[in-house]
Design brief:
The complex is a heterohexamer, with 2 copies of chain A (about 120 residues), 2 copies of chain B (about 100 residues) and 2 copies of chain C (about 120 residues). Chain A is an alpha/beta fold and about 120 residues long. Chain A has helices at about 20-35, 85-90, 105-115, and strands at about 10-15, 40-45, 80-85, 105, 120. The radius of gyration of chain A is 14 Å and the shape is globular. The longest helix of chain C is centred in the N-terminal third of the chain and has 14 residues, at about 15-30. Classes of the chains: A alpha/beta (about 120), B alpha/beta (about 100), C alpha/beta (about 120).
Chain lengths: ~120, ~100, ~120, ~120, ~100, ~120
């Protein structure tokens, strides 16, 4: 162990779903990691806020709909989920558009949480 | 000419570059992550609305649905893959990758 | 009308391969011909036969092979791009041939329209 | 043959070199295509203008320097090479910074040439 | 914190997003196509110069050389791979991919 | 100091693999330890043994295998990302193991610093 306390890991989700696999395989990382008891946070920033958009139906493009799995994040121990308010606003999204209740915060708040991390993983 | 844009306007320059090159009455198809430009209420809404006045702007329905986008910018037309094929048959394609 | 298809990205990582597949199907359904499908850049990974995605997901390589068999499509992997990336005859699906960029040139000349998918 | 005349093909180069392989493998396409007698044009737009920057030395990143090969484009029959002036200006480049003499034009000129093509290939 | 940016500011939002998150005295390393932001005379010069006043901004020398960039924005420091390693040893990394 | 390395893009198509290699070499030269190198997303393609780039170009897979042998590095390919893309035991270079994402978690916990390369 590199630390004599829990390791603080943040998942920084900046990519939209479907156009690339980053969001999907990033979610797989979050779920596996959660089996290890550490301190987790997730931040949805830039196009990553689209990951949490509700009412997606990917049947028409022949790809697996995976984003309902974001609903289990909290149960899996990813207790802190931050969503960037400016990214939401730029994209015309409100908390009602998202599939889970989230804490909408400003970039500075996310930056300050980021500054406390031991590891930041981008997806 | 059929311009195709598959990139999010929030992350990439593809749509801006396409709009700098499009000629009056050209067709522009937004698909894959490009459909985020067609979403109503974004900071690019007025840009896309203006583009839809000058060019024929389409968004691929299956890609909109996959991303949960229902309300789209006025003047943008939704098409399906058959419509995409018809556009590609009628026009030379310039892909803005 | 005859379409040539150029695929520049690999499977799963980007939507390009899915879009190309859906487009090709729709073109065939509309009665168009496909002159050839050329795989370049990371697109060469689309035909790797050892893919084993989860059971509830699409198998992109198998799907291309089945479409090729059903419609007698000409699927071509670029030899230079493939060699660089480890896509050689022993790891590719049936109904695909490995050939040079000259084949892409031929498709551009023979097809009425080129349609490109990538990142 | 789909046409009873030479096919008009434009290579649309929008990606910078090294960061991704598109410029390099795009150049390979141009050189092979040139062996077939057709009508070729190349346009360097957006970050593609960096492809033509002179005095590159990639030894420090362990990658092959390929961009001197752009010098043979003309000999290979790619007679029309357009470079977008606004892209140059945005990036602080002048024709003196490029390794070959080029025609610096505006986007509208490139768009009009594009409109005459049978095929546009992006790299 | 060490922010790393490997994308061209002309094509991607990575640098802008990084700058929206960086805190005073954070380190920002431009590498791969990110080094285009360090080039002198571009339309982002004043933005990068301002950033170099607030944060410690570095550009990876081998990536600059590969791209033929000699003149760089005032205040940006050139480092090599050993310098990159030293920065990564001293700071937690946030990659803006 | 101990570094963990995460590589998210494949060889040749993006510079990520080259940057990771150059970084790893510099870290070793500076006397640091490498806890492990984890290949995810298209990064799994880095270890495909059949790569045959032109003779005047680098062989990215071979280069990783040689560095691993010389410094006894732990190279790990994600099993899920690899399966999806056709990277299985029979097509990988020596000195690489295929294992789960739990290994990436272990690296994050054991290493002092994580360094990520991708697109």
């Amino acid at each position: 162990m590199a630390r004599d306390r829990l390791t603080k890991i943040m998942f920084m989700c900046r990519q939209a779903p479907y156009g690339s696999v980053y969001a999907y395989e990033g979610l797989e990382v979050m779920l596996i990691f959660a089996a290890y008891e550490q301190e987790y946070a997730a931040a949805f920033v830039d196009d990553g806020v689209f990951d949490l958009k509700k009412d997606k139906d990917s049947s028409g493009i022949g790809m697996k709909e995976f984003s309902t799995t974001y609903r289990v994040m909290e149960d899996y121990g990813i207790e802190k989920v931050y969503v960037d308010g400016q990214s939401m606003k730029d994209r015309g999204l409100t908390p009602d558009d998202l599939m889970i209740p989230v804490e909408v915060v400003d970039r500075d708040t996310i930056a300050k949480v980021m500054a406390e991390q031991d590891v930041v993983l981008p997806f | 000419m059929l311009h195709t844009v598959n990139k999010s306007p929030f992350d990439r320059s593809a749509l801006a570059s396409c709009l700098a090159s499009a000629q009056p009455d050209d067709h522009i198809l937004l698909f894959e992550d490009g459909v985020f430009a067609a979403k109503a209420g974004t900071k690019y809404e007025s840009m896309v609305k203006e583009a839809a006045g000058k060019y024929k702007v389409y968004a691929l329905g299956p890609d909109l649905q996959a991303r949960g986008i229902d309300a789209i910018v006025d003047g943008v037309e939704i098409c399906d893959y058959a419509g995409f094929v018809a556009l590609a048959a009628d026009n030379v394609m310039c892909p803005w990758l | 009308m005859t379409f040539g298809i150029l695929i520049l990205e690999g499977p799963y990582n980007h939507q390009a391969s899915d879009s190309a597949y859906n487009f090709t199907q729709a073109a065939l359904e509309a009665g168009h011909k496909i002159q050839g499908i050329f795989f370049y850049h990371d697109g060469v990974y689309n035909v790797a036969k050892l893919m084993e995605p989860p059971q509830d997901d699409r198998n992109i390589a198998t799907r291309w092979a089945e479409l090729a068999e059903k419609h007698d499509l000409d699927l071509i992997v670029c030899i230079a791009a493939g060699k660089r990336r480890g896509i050689s005859p022993e790891v590719i699906i049936p109904h695909v041939r490995i050939d040079g960029l000259g084949q892409l040139s031929e498709i551009c000349l023979e097809a009425d329209r080129m349609v490109t998918f990538g990142d």
